[in-house]
Amino acid sequence: MERLKNCVRGFADRVRWARIIETVCVFPCPGCREALPEQGWNGFCTECLSRLHRIDGPRCPGCGGPQDGILAYCSKCLRIGVRPWKDAYAVIELDPFGLELIHRYKYSGQVELARAFAALGAETIRRSGTVFDAIVPVPLHWTRYLGRGFNQAHLFCRLLGGELGIPVRGYLVRSRATRRQARLNREQRLNNLTDAFALRRGANPDGLRLLLIDDVLTTGATLTEACRPLAKAQVSIMVIGRR
Ligand SMILES: [Zn+2]
Ligand SMILES: [Zn+2]
């Protein structure tokens, strides 16, 4: 009982501090950097929320995009073939505004976007009613950290896990550095990534329901390879942006 009381007290303190910080400091919307978000700390303002292209309604389990026919998979995923994951969620579509936000997040170091993305991602997962045992980030090779300073998928994971109350587990490691994927076609991407991921020593994700997270889904080559060491788990994927 005492532990429960302490826990409640700790939570109340944290909420109080968050309120005080919000009253004293002003955190503008990370989308337009002007308006004040109504949902508090680092959320998007109403105007930016209305500009963001989010996926409502039936989703394609291959890419998390909207279904575009009578089949569960969208036409693009049908061309690509069977995916190794069970279901897919995307926070936003990469239309010009979505792409600009992702670029600011990944390459211009606008890390406060992570919280806004995580709040939307958590809402998507809650609405789906699906339960996960752990959230797993797709790891960057350590040489990539040098250029970028942080793993954007990992930061998003931590905040998403916090919102949903799901632990984040670093089950995967990069076993070798790979070329940048952006300029390669799908076949080259898959070859580039062969055996790029391995299970961290001592990790045992077998049988768990995992939400594997990457920042962007284009062809799905990175996520396909990252699924390989997780073959005995039940994997669904989430990306911040999809095209
Ligand atoms: Zn805004
Ligand atoms: Zn699809």
Explain what this protein looks like in three dimensions.
There is one protein chain. By secondary structure, the protein is of the alpha/beta class. It folds into 2 domains: 1-51, no CATH class; 56-242, Rossmann fold. The chain has helices at residues 2-24, 46-51, 75-80, 96-107, 113-128, 142-148, 152-164, 186-193, 221-227; strands at residues 88-93, 134-137, 172-174, 197-199, 209-217, 234-242. The strands form 2 sheets. Strands 1-6-5-2 form a 4-stranded parallel sheet, sandwiched between helices. The chain has a two-stranded antiparallel ribbon with strand order 3-4. Helix 9 (221-227) links the parallel strand 5 and strand 6. Helix 8 packs parallel to helix 9. The chain is globular. One zinc ion (ZN) binds next to helix 3.
List the helices and strands and how they pair.
Layout: H1 2-24, H2 46-51, H3 75-80, E1 88-93, H4 96-107, H5 113-128, E2 134-137, H6 142-148, H7 152-164, E3 172-174, H8 186-193, E4 197-199, E5 209-217, H9 221-227, E6 234-242
Parallel strand pairs: 1-6, 2-5, 5-6
Antiparallel strand pairs: 3-4
Helix pairs in contact: 5-7, 8-9
The structure holds zinc ion (2 copies).
One zinc ion is lined by residues 29, 31-32, 35, 44-45, 47-48.
Number of structural domains = 2
Specify the CATH class of the largest domain.
Alpha Beta
Separation of the first and last Cα atoms: 50 Å
Please tell me the overall pLDDT: 84
Total strand count, please?
6
CATH architecture classification name of the largest domain = 3-Layer(aba) Sandwich
Tell me which ligands are bound. Answer: zinc ion
Outline the low-pLDDT stretches.
Answer: none
**What is the number of helices?**
9
The best one-word shape is globular
**Largest beta sheet: strand ordering:** 1-6-5-2
Portion in beta strands? 5-15%
Q: What is the chain-wise order of helices and strands?
A: HHHEHHEHHEHEEHE
* Overall radius of gyration: 19 Å
Question: In terms of structural class, how would the helical and strand content be classed?
Answer: alpha/beta
Which topology of the largest domain does CATH recognise?
Rossmann fold
- How does the major sheet shape up? 4 strands, parallel
